[in-house]
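User: Predict Amino acid permease's structure from this.
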Amino acid sequence: MALLNDNSSGMDDFGYKESLDRSLGKFASFAAGVSYISILTGTFQLFYFGFGTAGPAYLWSWPAVFVGQLCVALCFMELAAKYPVAGSVYNWAKLLGRRIVGWSAGWLMLTASIVTLAAVALALQLNLPRIWSGFQIIGDGSGATDFAANAVLLGAILIAITTTINALGVRLMAMINSAGVFIELIAAVLIAILLAANITRGPEVFFSTNGYGAGESGGYLGAFLVASLASGYVMYGFDTASSLGEETVEPRRTAPKAIFRAILASFVIGGAILVFAVMAAPDLNDPSLGSPDGSLQSIVEAVMWGPLGTVFLICIVIAVFVCSLAVHTAAIRLTFAMARDNALPFGESLAKVNPKTQTPVVPAVTIGVLAIVILVVNIGQPQIFTVLTSIAIIMIYLAYLMVTGPLLVKRIKGEWPPEDLEPGGYFTMGKFGLPVNIAAVVWGAGMALNLAWPREAVYGTPWYNTFGAFVYIGGILGVGLLWYAVKGRKHIGTLKSHACTGN
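Assistant:
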């Protein structure tokens, strides 16, 4: 497969014909990446974990994760400048490495995305009952399973809505997503400003361990590495802008810029919220800050007067909604991309595009159902769900590594970047490509290992949860590779219904 073939969309290099609705503009592409990262969802959902584990200084993990993920994003920007196709991570890994590498990256990314959709949907429980007690539909919140059961119910309703929207077409999805992201960005900036206006302490709080990590194995460094999961959980999914490339106008120019803007905006605005929240918190020794029942939401409610705190909680709910929508959308494109290669069971059905809406309907429904099934686990086994959520992040980091790794090999061999990028005015890192690519690989491997390290503080007990990253990822990858070995590898190839007739 040629790496130097110049074309307008990159699809000819894969032998695919146009089958999706190419209607997304620059803001819609940017909004897709921002909503997947979702400043308000990620920061508000995991603040309690980071702060409760390592205190205020855990926020140094925010710029650390940004720098590492920026290196990955820059690599993805080069790839998007040449190949902005659906299911980008899968197709990039397939093109740069061996077919088994591409399939493994796609399988890990797909299963992780379904779990992520379920995890994001659970965030409604952290916000809706705060707005109105009537949203606590199951029990009054005091029962042993009230919180978990109600979270599953609210999450299932949300996923049913995102399924419907995605099934109705990309234009409706983009319109709703763009409007939601616009609201989220304005709300995030205003939250940062209002928190800054209410600071009660200086930045010195970030330069002390504040007693965290004392007496523990590894000291504060050990606690900090665990807490970095909170930041690692937020800054990924920027590849969504490229995964929607087949539905974007001028994708080779639009997608790379959207990727960069999405991760930069998330870092700056999200970082401002986190920093000013810690500086504005009434009492940093309040144990609720390290609990999901308090977390960042309690700081926002405490420092904002009158109904303003409720208004911003509503904005957080909107952010959770568009984040769920974007995660669902990205998972659909990945499913579609693998299915049209007959790389998934029931490939023909999963790759079918509705002629009226020009969108894959079957993957939308299938992913929605699977995510709701995963949600149900949370009722009786919340610790297992926490483990699954954590390893989903690891699987996405591994999938990214299966792109940046083969890309580095191509770069060292002199086979990357393509010759048409610079003359055509497309994004390329030029002489900085090699060091950035090396940094992306080292970062991806190091962060994946850090997140996977068996820690009871993260994964709990018994042993199969403590070693959950290895047990569950091994099981998920093992089941997938078994199907690949028995059936998949014999049948993988572009379906006739999606093959470019010009090839």
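The CA atoms of residues 63 and 380 lie 36 Å apart.
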